[in-house]
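Hi there,

I know you've been waiting on this one. I reran it after we fixed the sequence typo, so this is the corrected version. Both the input and the resulting structure follow.
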Amino acid sequence: MSTRDVPARIGDLPPIGRPANSALLAAGITTLAQVATRRRADLLAMHGVGPKAVRILTETLTDHNLTWAD
């Protein structure tokens, strides 16, 4: 799937970029609660998810009183 076909936003996730969205969709992650069940390192290991996306997700998790699984 081309990143052009990936939505700019998925569910309640913050805007983290289409490559990161594509990686999360491929892993079946569509909500912030699902992100909270994963480890930061697992997301960073996904092609398309970089430090900036993880930083944005970390900030959003904190805003919603959630944390990473690690």
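Quick highlight: The chain is about 45% helix and 0% strand.

Best,
R. S.
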